[in-house]
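Appendix B. Raw example, untouched.
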Amino acid sequence: MADRRDQVLIGFRCDAALREQIEAALKGAPLSQFLRDAVVERLGQMSLPVDPALAQAPSRLGKGGPKPCKKTGKK
């Protein structure tokens, strides 16, 4: 999957204990969205306001989904 031109991947390693705490805090949210929201919130606490729209995941519109199965004609 190609990234949007204006996006970069930010990754980091963490201890398993930290990962477990993050997973407990997710409450059903995707991990990447949770981390984007956490970064925006922290920057706001540091008096560096960030447009919350920047924390939104890139659109998947037009990316397609599962390929349709061929119909066999059997009933």
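End of appendix B.
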